[in-house]
Amino acid sequence: MTRLFASFSVLLAQSAIGATAAASIPSPIVTAPAQRTIVRWISGEVRCGDARPDMSGLRSTWPDSTFAGPAVRIADVTFSFAIDAQGRVRSVTPLGQQGSVGGTDLGPSLVASRFPAGQPHETCLVTYSPNATPLSVAPIADLLEFSVRPGPMRLPKEGWDRIAASFECNKSPRPQALVRRYPDPRRVPETPGQQQWTLVAFDLDQSGAATNARIAAGTGSKVLDDAALEAAAGNRFASGAREGCLQPFVRRAGTLDAPELPDALRDESPEGACGGKGNWQVEPRLVYPEHYRLRSIEGWAKLTYDVAPWGAIDNVRVVESQPSADFGRQAQMMLRQAKVVQGNGTTGCSQIVRFRMAGDLSADESPAMD
Fold this sequence. Notes:
Keywords: Cell inner membrane, Cell membrane, Membrane, Protein transport, Signal, Transmembrane, Transmembrane helix, Transport. Its main location: membrane. One of its GO terms (biological process) is transmembrane transport. This is Transport protein TonB. InterPro entries: TonB-dependent_transducer, TonB/TolA_C, TonB_C. It is a single chain. By secondary structure, the protein is an alpha+beta fold. It folds into 3 domains: about 35-145, no CATH class; about 165-250, TolA/TonB C-terminal domain (2-Layer Sandwich); about 265-370, TonB (TolA/TonB C-terminal domain, 2-Layer Sandwich). It contains 8 helices and 16 strands. A 5-stranded antiparallel β-sheet has the order 2-1-5-3-4. It has a 4-stranded antiparallel β-sheet with strand order 13-12-15-16. It has a 3-stranded antiparallel β-sheet with strand order 8-7-10. Helix 4 (about 140-145) packs across helix 5.
């Protein structure tokens, strides 16, 4: 009875207002559905005070993919960083944001960049702006690059369909490969922090032999391009002339060593109340920052923290981390989840966490607690 009365009262109130209320009812908001987009990050000018360093060694980022509607705006991202005397990038930190820029390659690509040696700068800035394009109309070059990016993100079927439609050889029925040749990896050195790739396009003559091999896209590594062209020329397919066949070649990123740990930061707390081997009630779960792992970038972090009598770790602070603040945040998160064996508690503990690559991207890269 109470529910019926409440509904009836609402109807009376609406009737009393009359036609004016009906006219004031807003029109329904119609929004376009979110769609898959390809996001390219475009870097602005690098500014180091009054200096404008040569940007030819600035690494481009891998394209991202996300779902977004027409009203969604992806914000620009600005980083501060330093350039050492060797031209390496250090102290990379996103400005005006909490935590790392998730889901992008921005920080790692900046760390992998190289500037001219002998021109160190302590405070530099660069802003990246997103260029989001629906997958249905994204440039084929962006789809090709997305298809070879490292990591679990995969190009959706719609993207592959657009690529296939652009190259006659990939249309059904696809020619049957009899022999596919690949470059000798020993001839193509790894580039620290940068995966190199190239996409070779070639045609097939009536006998199925590869002809007219040429570079369709890639990172511009001449060594890889030359080796890929030589390999693709040896491909053999079932007979039948075709044009526009594609074969990608990828050389994984080589390890980019972490900057040297300063002597002033090497001191650590002795094992005991501050943790250490045999004194963890819950050991730190050591996890590598994923986007840096994909570029084989190493790093380290120096932390200080307190331990409560019941073993909880608190007041975890990053003293310094290199080459990026992301390594400090990752180490901080790991240490907060740990717990020391119960005791008297202590303050002012310190810990160094090193992030080292094992040499195989398929292996479990685990940071080391010094």
